[in-house]
Amino acid sequence: MTGLLTAGFALGVTALTLKAGEGTHSALDTVLSTATGFLFLLAGAVAHVRRPANPIGVLIALAGVALFLEDLQFTRDPVLYTIAVPLRAASGPVIAHLVLAFPHGRLRSRWERVLIAAAYVVVLGIGVVGLLFTDEPRDLLAISADPRDGAFADRALELGATAISAGVVVVLLYRWLTGRLPQRRLLSPVIAIALVGALASGTGTALGDGHPLSEPLLQTYRVLFCLWPLAFLAGVLRARVGNAEMIRLLLERDGTGLAALVQDDEVWKDSRSIDALNAAAGLVLDNQRLTAELEQRLAEVRASRARLVAAGDEERRRVERDLHDGAQQRLVSVVLLLRMAGRRYGGSLPAEVRALLSGTVDELQRAITELRELARGIRPAILTEAGLPAAVRSLADRIPMEVALTVGDVPRLDAAVEATAYFVTSEALTNALKHAETDHVDVRIAAGGAELRVEVRDRGVGGASLDGGSGLAGLRDRVEALGGELGVESGSGGTTVRAVIPLGEAPGTP
């Protein structure tokens, strides 16, 4: 780009000098044509700086260079004239290329590439042919001085340029008509200037030099053509802002979840960019939808597990009530009846019968004790009546080892939370009693924030694990069903069981 701009400015100064010294062009015409070339160079430089990866800036600047190359034909030097004559319409195919490649800098279809290749071949080829057939004395390669041959070459060049211009206009109009609103807004200034300029130029030329409207129309065309590079530059910068806006819409919402894609009408989109954006947005939306469905199903699974835990606890309470009010009471009644029978008839019974009766009472007492322990293991009545702290203290009092119990200010909690914390403590104390080979255990229970924390630590030989079919593994499932976590750390220094359980609502709490 640096070399292109340097050559362009040098050619611009040269073209201005040649055109001004040639004497057949008005000052306004010379100023407008020179200004147009320099504006193309300036617009190309700005577009290249703002979008260096886009070749559109090079094409815009190349159009300015081509315009200046056309003016080299006004030189008096035969060598320079011979070189310049084939380039006397060089801006035509370059500008056609620029228009069709706008704003991404690349031709999009095979037909567009064929059209532009034909433009370069026709314009440069006819220019070379015109160089061979002319009566211009500065032409060093002329082989025929017949004016009719030169006129034929000029006419062929005009027809070729007209056909190419018509093809470009058709492609532009098709692109505008089939494009979406942002694309139309971006192309509208370029197309409007091209159509109005072409209409003014064609009408002025058709009216002829003697018509009073001919020269104003041609000057209108030159002014519009001078503004054309600014329309290209505005479109490039506008497309850049639009692309950045599309990226921002995706990136800023990616971290928080994309619920809807807001489309700015000012954003440039062609069919490929629209498809790419729709595909990207579709992937994000599908991902968000699948994530939401997964979270919903996980919530349903957690709720289902919590309902199972609650149903299990309710069944435990029912069994405990049935044992206490049914079988246990019947066994107590049997013991009372046997004792009454012993007191009333004991003196008349043989010693063997009295001993058998006494042994039967003792066995029934042990059965009642075991039944009470079984009912307490299912769900202690004190847990339902007095809450978690009282139930844990009762449990610690029954354990035949030293238990250092630390219970914070724990209010009444959801029944499932209290039962889970109690059974974690009970299982950890039972494991320490059976396997830890220690006579001291620390128990800490505290409620903080939205969590209930339970920690049971012994100083035994270790070896506890959540793997296998241990009771701790079953308790882990119970804790996780309430959305909590259960962990075990075990080593030569002892075993620590920690449970973190989310607090539920206390009974009767709204």
Structure, explained:
The protein has 510 residues and is an alpha+beta fold. The protein is built from 15 helices and five strands. It has helices at residues 2-22, 27-50, 56-70, 78-84, 91-101, 110-132, 147-178, 181-207, 214-254, 271-345, 351-378, 381-386, 388-398, 415-435, 471-481, and strands at 402-407, 440-448, 451-458, 485-491, 494-502. Strands 1-2-3-5-4 form a five-stranded mixed β-sheet. Helix 2 (27-50) runs parallel beside helix 9 and helix 8 packs antiparallel against helix 9 (214-254).
Quick overview:
Helices cover 69% and strands 8% of the residues.
How are the secondary structure elements laid out?
Elements (H helix, E strand, L loop, with lengths): L1 H21 L4 H24 L5 H15 L7 H7 L6 H11 L8 H23 L14 H32 L2 H27 L6 H41 L16 H75 L5 H28 L2 H6 L1 H11 L3 E6 L7 H21 L4 E9 L2 E8 L12 H11 L3 E7 L2 E9 L8
Parallel strand pairs: 1-2
Antiparallel strand pairs: 2-3, 3-5, 4-5
Helix pairs in contact: 1-2, 1-3, 2-3, 2-9, 3-5, 5-6, 5-7, 6-7, 7-8, 8-9, 10-11, 13-14, 14-15
